[in-house]
Design goal:
- This protein has 14 helices and 24 strands.
- The protein is α/β, with parallel strands linked by helices and 468 residues long.
- The strands form five sheets. Strands 1, 2, 3, 4, 5, 6, 7, 18 and 19 form a nine-stranded mixed beta sheet that branches. Strands 9-16-10-11-12 form a five-stranded parallel beta sheet.
- Strand 11, helix 8 and strand 12 form a beta-alpha-beta unit.
- Helix 1 packs parallel to helix 9, helix 3 runs antiparallel to helix 5 and helix 3 packs parallel to helix 7.
Length: 468
C-alpha cells in the first residue's frame, strides 16, 4: 500500500461544485490540497450529468421549438430537421470543455486530483481505491466530505435502461419517446420533461402532492402549472406510483390517488423517475471517525465541522441541494480551515427553474410569511406590461416583491418570466444588505429591459407602478 509523500493540509472527497471549489479555494490560500474523485472527470453530477448538460438540452430544445413556431411569426422562414445525435454531441462537447476547465484551475492553483473512490479509514487518513484496484492512503490535517447526492429511487419501481430512467438517463436518450411519463413534479422532472416535450414527446407528469414544485410560492406555482399545461404538458396530481411493469412496447405504471381510492394504469414509452435526490455516503467510512448520518442520510455540522479535522459541505449536508449552495459552503469551510471568517446565509440562496418561462425566487414565500404571522406588503408586475418582454413575445408571468409592512425591508422576491434566473440577483443583493423595496424602486433601470419588471413590482409595493 503506497503512502502519500507528505501530509496534506486538506483532502476533499468528491469533485463536484462543492469539492472542486473547495480545492481551488484551498490552493488560492496556499494550503496543500488534494481532491479525490471517482469519476473519470471533475465536476461531479452538476457538470457531468446534471446542471450543465440539462441546460445544453434546454437551450437546444428551446431553439428547436422557436424554429418550428416563433421564427415564422417574426419573418424567418425555415424548414428545421431534428438531428438528436448532433444535439447530444454538442451537449457532450460543451460538458467536456467545462470539465477540462476545472482541470486547468486545479493545475493553476496547485490542487492535486487523486482519481479513485475515497474512504475515511481513520483520523486524518483517506484511502483511495483506483479503477485498477490499486490503493493509496492520503494523510491530512483536514478531511472535507463533499460527496454530493444521487437520485432517489422510487419504491416498487426498478430502474431499467432506456425504459425506467433517472435524470442521468433522461439526458442521453437516443430517440424522442412518443410518450414520456415523469414521476415527480419538482424542478428536475419539469426541466427534463420540458426538453422532451419540445422535441416532440407527449409528456405526463405524475405527482404525489396536489401541487407542483413544493417550496415554490403557491401563486407562482399555480401560474407555472397553467403555463406548462398551455404548452402541452399534462399533470396527474395527488397520485402515487405503486408499481411498474415494462414490456416490448413500453412501461405500464400502476397509479393510485394519494388520499386513497381505485388504482389505474397509465402507459408510456419511457418513465423518468425524478422524485428528488438523497445524500451519497456509500462506503465513505463515516463510522471510522465517529460520524453518523441522520435517518435521511444527511450529515449534521457545526459551522461545517462534524468531528475533529472532519468537515462537510454541499448536498450531503442540510440546506438547498443546489450547486451554488455547495460552492458557497466550499469557500466558507475552507476559509474557516485556513483561520479566516466563513459564513453562508442559507435564507438568501436563490432557486431557479430553467424552463421557458424560467422561475426564480429568493427569500420567503407568502405562505411562509403568513405562517410566521409577519405583516407584509406585496407588489406585483406582469411581463405583459413590460416593453422588452412584449416586443419579444415572451409575456407569460410576473414579478412579485414581498416587503415588511412596517420597515419596507424586502423579505422575498418571486419571478416567473423570461430570464428570471438572471434577474433574481438584484433582489438577493438588496436583501443581503437589508434593503427596502423602495431601494429597488428608486434605482434607475435601463429601458427597455426585462429587469424593469423587478423595479415596477417594487414600485407597486407602495402602489405607484407605471404600465409600459
Amino acid at each position: 500500500m503506497a503512502e502519500a509523500p507528505a501530509p496534506y493540509d486538506v483532502v476533499i472527497i468528491g469533485g463536484g461544485p462543492g469539492g472542486y471549489n473547495a480545492a481551488i479555494r484551498a490552493g488560492q490560500l496556499g494550503l496543500k490540497v488534494a481532491c479525490v474523485e471517482m469519476r473519470g472527470t471533475l465536476g461531479g453530477t452538476c457538470l457531468n450529468v446534471g446542471c450543465m448538460p440539462s441546460k445544453a438540452l434546454l437551450h437546444a430544445s428551446e431553439l428547436w421549438e422557436a424554429a418550428n413556431g416563433e421564427f415564422a411569426k417574426i419573418g424567418i422562414e425555415v424548414s428545421p430537421k431534428l438531428n438528436l445525435a448532433q444535439m447530444q454531441k454538442s451537449k457532450d462537447e460543451s460538458v467536456l470543455g467545462l470539465t477540462k476547465g476545472i482541470e486547468f484551475l486545479f493545475k493553476k492553483n496547485k490542487a492535486d486530483w487523486i482519481k479513485g473512490k475515497g474512504k475515511i479509514v481513520g483520523k486524518g487518513k483517506v484511502e483511495v481505491t483506483a479503477e485498477d484496484g490499486s490503493i493509496q492512503t492520503l494523510e491530512t490535517k483536514n478531511i472535507v466530505i463533499a460527496t454530493g447526492s444521487e437520485p432517489t429511487p422510487l419504491p416498487g419501481v426498478a430502474f431499467e435502461a432506456g425504459k425506467v430512467i433517472d435524470s442521468t438517463g433522461a439526458l442521453s436518450l437516443p430517440s424522442v419517446p412518443k410518450k414520456l411519463i415523469v414521476v415527480g413534479a419538482g424542478i428536475i422532472g419539469l426541466e427534463l420533461g420540458s426538453v422532451w416535450r419540445r422535441l416532440g414527446a407527449e409528456v405526463t407528469v405524475v405527482e404525489f402532492l396536489d401541487r407542483i414544485t413544493p417550496g415554490m410560492d403557491t401563486e407562482v406555482a399555480t401560474t407555472f402549472q397553467r403555463t406548462l399545461t398551455k404548452q402541452g404538458m399534462k399533470f396527474k396530481l395527488g397520485a402515487k406510483v405503486t408499481a411498474a411493469k415494462s414490456g416490448k412496447d413500453g412501461v405500464e405504471l400502476t397509479v393510485e390517488p394519494s388520499a386513497g381510492g381505485a388504482a389505474e394504469t397509465i402507459k408510456g414509452d419511457v418513465v423518468l423517475v425524478a422524485i428528488g435526490r438523497r445524500p451519497y455516503t456509500d462506503g465513505l467510512g463515516l463510522e471510522n471517525v465517529g460520524v453518523t448520518a441522520d435517518k435521511r442520510g444527511f450529515i449534521d455540522h457545526d459551522h461545517f465541522k462534524v468531528a475533529d479535522g472532519v468537515w462537510v459541505i454541499g448536498d450531503v449536508t442540510h440546506g438547498p441541494m443546489l450547486a451554488h449552495k455547495a460552492e458557497e459552503d466550499a469557500v466558507a469551510a475552507i476559509d474557516i480551515i485556513a483561520g479566516k471568517y466563513g459564513h453562508v446565509d442559507y435564507a438568501l440562496v436563490p432557486s431557479v427553474v430553467y424552463t421557458a418561462p424560467e422561475v426564480s425566487w429568493v427569500g420567503q414565500t407568502e405562505e411562509q410569511l403568513k405562517a410566521a404571522g409577519v405583516n407584509y406588503k406585496k407588489g406585483k408586475f406582469p411581463f405583459i406590461a413590460n416593453s422588452r418582454a412584449k416586443i419579444n413575445h415572451e409575456t407569460d408571468g410576473f414579478v412579485k416583491v414581498l416587503a415588511d409592512a412596517a420597515t419596507d425591508k424586502v423579505l422575498g422576491v418571486h419571478i416567473i418570466g423570461p430570464q428570471a434566473g438572471e434577474m433574481i440577483h438584484e433582489a438577493a443583493i438588496t436583501m443581503s444588505f437589508g434593503g427596502a423595496s423602495e431601494d429597488i424602486a428608486r434605482t434607475c433601470h435601463a429601458h427597455p429591459t426585462r429587469s424593469e419588471a423587478v423595479r415596477q413590482a417594487a414600485m407597486d409595493v407602495e402602489g405607484w407602478a407605471m404600465q409600459a
